[in-house]
Amino acid sequence: MAFNSLSYFFFLPVVYLVFYFTADRWRWLVLLVASYGFYAALKAPYLPAVLLLVTAISYTCGLRMAAQHDETMRKRWLWGGSFASVIVLALFKYFPFFESQTNSLFGLNSTLSHTLISIGVSYYTFQAISYLADIYLEIEEPETHFGYYALYMAFFPKLLQGPIERTSDLIPQLKKPYQFDYDAMRSGMLLFTWGLFKKVVVADRLALYADQVFNNVHIFTGLSLIIGTYAYALQIYFDFSAYTDMARGTGRMFGVNLTENFNSPYLATSIADFWRRWHISFSRWILDYIFKPLQLGWRNWGQRGTALALIITFLVSGIWHGATWGFVIWGLLHGIYLASSTYYRPYQKKLHKWLGVEKSPWLKWWQVFVTFNLVSFAWIFFRAGSLGDAFYIVTKLHGLDYQNLVTLLLFKPVQNLIILGVLIIIPVVVSHFKNRMNFFEQPVWVRWSVYYALGSAILILSQSSGNFIYFRF
Amino acid sequence: MELQDTLNKIFCEVFDDDDIRITPEMTANDVDGWDSLSHVNLVTTIEAKFNIRFTQKDLLKQRSVGDLIADIERKLAA
Predict the structure, then answer these.
(1) What confidence tens digit (pLDDT) does each residue in A365-418 have?
(2) What is the crossing angle of helices A402-409 and A204-215, to 10°?
(3) All structural domains of chain B with their residue ranges
(4) Does B40 sit within 8 Å of A299, measured CB to CB?
(5) Fold of domain B2-77
(6) Which of A293, A295, A345 has the CB atom closest to B40's CB atom?
(7) CB–CB of B59 and A296 under 8 A?
(8) A299:B36 CB<8 A
(9) Is A274 exposed, middle or buried (0-12, 13-18, 19+ CB in 10 A)?
(10) A398 is annotated as an active-site residue
(11) Tens digit of pLDDT for each residue in A420-469?
(12) Which of A52, A245, A399, A454 is the most buried (most CB within 10 A)?
């Protein structure tokens, strides 16, 4: 069930009411049943079974590992549990890839993968692995209550698309007695509505232009391709951060604060900075459980070890998104950006000094511009329908074909562009004020104007909504 | 204390800052420039100076300077 579907607007209040009127010691059960129901609503009966399987495996391995004092045995439980989770993930995620390979090898015509969906699997398998790794490192105690552990894995606001939570962040909040908090409820509802606005009004409108370019790349050249790429860069940000806002908003209504996943990522001044601001729960995960072990293991190779660890980490990150060459290249590009920056960094300050720009206020904005373009360049491979399309785009990015540009900008009525221009400015203004003032301390007329504006924008300006982009991962 | 002094010198050398005064509670957030890249330099320098070798698990578990000191003491005693 998607957050922007009608059924969710019935589901959420009903779950909340049942949750509210249930005694504290059974509230986990209400949320657990609701979460499995929410997952089952995707009409793929095997998905709740897979979730239960991964939950049971990691729960058992965690307890067994903690009961062992022998290091070799602990390692076995860690690897056994993690390996089983990865196998489940790989079976779901890469089945379409294996199927197409087998089809072409043996001349078969199997289409099973077309009906197979794997929504959510990548997120909770990552949670299972981090849980086991933290027990192995003795940073965390295993959770003995199966119900709470199962809820940690399944909690519906973060089930389909993250944030990827750590046990130490989520489980204590799930166990905490619930008390109705007017402020939390109000801010949760506002955050949810804000997310809905970003998704159905902004992201889905940007998608019109991004899709027009990426679905018909060969009729465009030069600036049109650049605009299409920027439109996609903005679309994926609004789409994904909208989902996170809706997840966090829902969580807050139940007294749970989920991890923030985005922090103005396109204001990053370097690729490393970008990854501290983009899909934060995921980047922390790959940093802690892939990059650090590799980097520390190869510490005697010096900078080469770090560079190689970065490339491999981001290659895995690409493959996590799916078994296509586009994702592989996207991941590799980020790995290469980061690996190169480890070599460039010692000279960066000297270069700025030599150019006399180290104190210039423009330096930061130049870095933001370069970072945004590097990130956008990588998005081309992420979004393009095929590798051929992606290579077509990167080789045709130069030149200004005026006719071509007009075709793109006017393929929808021009009002669309004007609305879009205004819409993109709103979130920028909001994030500017968010850190400077408390919205809920503003006068009643200001607050209610905002509520009405948001509500009307959603009702009047929403596009026929597509699914969230990150559902696929 | 002797160990902490030696370690302090290593910190000053690795982070190129003579004013660093380490405490057991100190974490990476408290030292300018202590990120995952400089951390590797710190670890390899410590290993070379004390002639010890951390396991990967030791390194992944360390959360503060105190953890680091405890691990060095344990390795030196072994």
Answers:
(1) 999 999 999 999 999 999 998 999 999 999 988 877 777 778 778 777 777 788
(2) 140
(3) 2-77
(4) yes
(5) 1.10.1200
(6) A295
(7) yes
(8) no
(9) buried
(10) no
(11) 888 888 877 887 777 777 888 888 888 888 888 888 888 877 776 667 77
(12) A245
